[in-house]
Amino acid sequence: MAGRLTLVFTGPGRVEVVPEDDDGDGDGDGHAGAPPGRVLVRTLVSAISAGTELLAFRGQIPPGTALDETLGALAGGTFAYPFRYGYAAVGEVVATGAGVDGAWRGRRVFAYEPHATAFTAAPADLVAVPEGIAPERAALLAHTETAVNLVLDGAPLVGEEVLVIGQGTIGLLATALLARVPLARVTVCEPLPLRAAAARALGARHVAGNADEAVRAVGARGADLVFELSGDPAALDLAIAAAGHEARIVVGSWYGGKRAPVDLGGRFHRRRLRLVSSQVSRIAPALSARWDRERRFGVAWNALAEIDTLPLISHRFPFADAQAAYEIIDRHPERVLQVLLDYP
Questions:
Q1: Residues 14 and 74 reside in one and the same domain
Q2: Residue pair 95/32 in contact by the 8 Å Cβ criterion
Q3: Considering 30, 167, 288, 331, which has the largest number of Cβ atoms within 10 A of its Cβ?
Q4: Do 156 and 134 share a domain, yes or no?
């Protein structure tokens, strides 16, 4: 596709939209724009991850860290500037290469691709967007899949007291999913009023504005299950303080290069607390006999159809103004829920 542009992280606090060479010029058999075995997708919208991408924008990820070895579009790359990144693109297939079923043309798809006006991909790396799911909803598939994985790893039980720390987009989606489980209560800890209001709208029974309020809210028995989704390693101290005897603490945050002292003294030790790392690239081995990516996608799509995610989209920027999009996420978190990039 002529004039294809891509977003590049060029240094701390800086992204640029630059021209990119096409992956191929076709095969000379009526498949212009798509190499053999691949399709060409014109991007409609992409979602910015205010967690990982903000770390990348700030330069808070060690440069030698792999972008994501499980995603083909990112495999082999690192967070050493300059680099391309992003993993939540929705677009329309505009051309198919030789050997690809022509039925793909015109189909709307989700892809774990960096932000760009267009890209080529193998059909196996695309997720077809179900009928009735608008592009701005579909752009949250990766976030929703992560939220589903968090809940699977936490394994909430009927009647449990659950605390969710942090109400960014993934935290809000996790809260919405947990609100559908017959728990005793879902409490969230979120100091920013905009996010706190969104959590209430999605089903949080109680919203604490700080750590002391959260500990009081779960009571003397403590929470049975805590999700740490704030992106702040210091929040692990709150998770430990709020957790009850033999409770589970699911850590879904990626802290990058951020460090904080964590108290693993008396309460953590004597209450036999269990820290669980949750990362969406893998499904827990205990579930793998019954769960795979396809089943998890199905649950995520159903959630996107049922949960009103449109109020979570607080800002939309033209792709050409991507620098402004990252700056508002970085400098004004109190104004931001989810930011999308729109493509011409």
A1: yes
A2: yes
A3: 167
A4: no
Which letter does DSSP use for residue 305 in this model? H
Query: For residue 131, what are the domain limits?
Result: 5-140+309-342
Over the stretch 294-330, which tens digit does the pLDDT of each residue have?
A: 999 999 999 999 999 999 999 999 999 999 999 999 9
What number of other Cβ atoms are within 10 A of residue 147's Cβ? 29
Task: Give the residue-averaged pLDDT of 241-247.
Answer: 97
Listed residue (130, 137, 131) closest to 44, CA to CA = 137
Residues 54, 329: contact at Cβ < 8 Å? yes
pTM: 0.92
60 with 257: CB under 8 angstroms? Answer: yes
Give residue for tokens 């799509």.
301
- What number of H helices and E strands is found in the chain? 10, 15
For the domain that residue 267 is a member of, what is the CATH number?
3.40.50.720
In a domain, 173, yes or no: yes
Percent of the chain with pLDDT over 70: 94
Determine if residue 16 is left, alpha or beta; phi over 0 gives left, psi from -120 to 50 gives alpha, anything else beta: beta
Q: Which amino acid is at 204?
A: A
Are residue 273 and residue 165 in the same domain, yes or no? yes
Cα 128 to the center of its chain, rounded Å: 18
How many separate domains does the chain show? 2
Residues 112 and 158 reside in one and the same domain: no
